[in-house]
């Protein structure tokens, strides 16, 4: 056997070489010419041109010599042309000189003839669906007849043989194949198929007269057959319809075998290996010709030996002994491993995809290979590709990446699994060391390249060497991508802690502030002890505050927000203002507001009264609305003590006092008269300011009035509504506050609460001059004397005012019929009318 040509792919590897004649003890004067070969499990059958059957036992172990078991002569004038193992009936079917012979699997007994058939041109066995069945069938071409022979194993190792015709006469049959219910027939004219049940036939296609010997080969799976037309293998289904793509061979095959997922064809002086799915040529095994003859290839299509291939040389020249070469399919894993050893990553990925498609590699091994590829690419500084493969691996644990980020020993060292990959890459180590070693390798490769020596270093790196800083940033960004994806997996709690904490380390390394704060403020598994010094020293206080807050460390978080708010209001922005920035005031207000907002989020859910009141003041200084939201939050389990709240709020923060008391009374249904009175007093004081502001801005359009002024205007309405609705406040205290003011309607409400009817009527009729309201109030009193009293006020307003005749006439018109005429006359006479 000649040496293999350089190839990047080895699908079949040599297992053993045997000299049949020497192993069988035959003298050199009696050379063997192999005409047929067959594999059945670990047994190899060879048929010779001199009418001999030889049996050998093969071993899976590499370099183990096959064992010769037996030689069985069948007749010197009976050259063997085909050997078909029939394991279901414990027989070997032999086609020799046109007759069919049966032998036992160990060739321990003389052969027996199968029937009286002569001039058999082709034979094919039907694959048995049930391997435990003690029967099988074969199709036989005898002259123009196509026969079906059914064999059944009986007790005593006897065979029951039944023969019947399948179809109409068929001329010049060259080859047969039986797949499913269809018997495929190859003739010099073309290919056809017949039903093994009813004999119905159909032509598949014809071939040119100049075509070489037709051949038909059943393929594994039991549903496809390859029909050979010169150097093209047409794959058809059980009904003769083409399926998939055809295989185009480099030469016209003399013999075809299959070692799934490969098709192996033998030519004049070489054996070629093709991928069955797409016809890609993978490997060539050359043989030096020593005379006329052909190469024979055989495999076990239905047994344990389907991983093996036998190549027999049938060359005859100068009594040179023929040889048989045993090959073994290289496993998917070994082929991928070989590519990775050569750092041919593109080929390894292609192989992985190919074997995954063919079902030649398990799901776990696919994940293993992706992980192995990732580590190799990582150490070759191809970080993006490496992480892409890490993400494709379902078995790679995130903790396997931790050593790239943090030097051992560390908190997570025990989590890192001691997986044994293929020993193709060094153990993981910190990124800086990986990059430094990689850069040294690139420099060495550049030197070798100048010396004319090829290297496996990426050509892109050689033509444009990267900088250490760029590589470090690229590596960190891609590890970040991997850790972010890992967060979506169902990890153990310690591993989740490692992922989040180290992710924060990497964010900080690239100063990705937004990402840091997003992680810290969301639900996370970061370990505070590992990060607080790091974040504090680097000045990432906002991130640290978010982290404290997410871990329930509210006091520490609030302390930071308070410091940040103070800094925003003092030194930090003082420095900026010296630079003349036009956006200082806007940014200052915005940044202070952010600090207050984040602090208020924490306080809204806290029930720690002392903590809330401690930080309420500075929040209120920045935004009173936030302070109100903190005090009135319904997100806490236990509400605050109103007494302590009111005592702690700055008395100058009137709006906070008002809004808090309003919430306490209206939303919390507080019935404490003290708080009702306090609320009424605050509203009254604000209403008095509203009157003052109304006088000040009365001549202006509403659009010109500041929003704060507009807010004050609404207070009178709120005061009036509250004074009318509540019965729990002290009206006298409120009257004391507004006694000197012009809040006459409010005074009327208060006097009414106190039962001072005459004063109420005076206010309504004389101060407010609201006749309708005055009459309505009389109706509410329900006594006629109230109307008489109102009539007297209209006729004698006093204080120098003119009598209100119109109002008096209106009153008499509306209610005169119900009044006592004498009382009306007395009032009129009293006032001299």
TrEMBL record:
Question: For the CNH domain, which residue ranges apply?
Answer: 31-300
CHCR repeat segments run 633-804
* Any one of the GO CC terms: membrane
Q: Which GO terms describe its biological process?
A: autophagy; endosomal vesicle fusion; intracellular protein transport
> Which domain of life does the UniProt lineage start with?
Eukaryota
Q: How is this protein named in the record? A: CNH domain-containing protein
Coding gene? ga10894
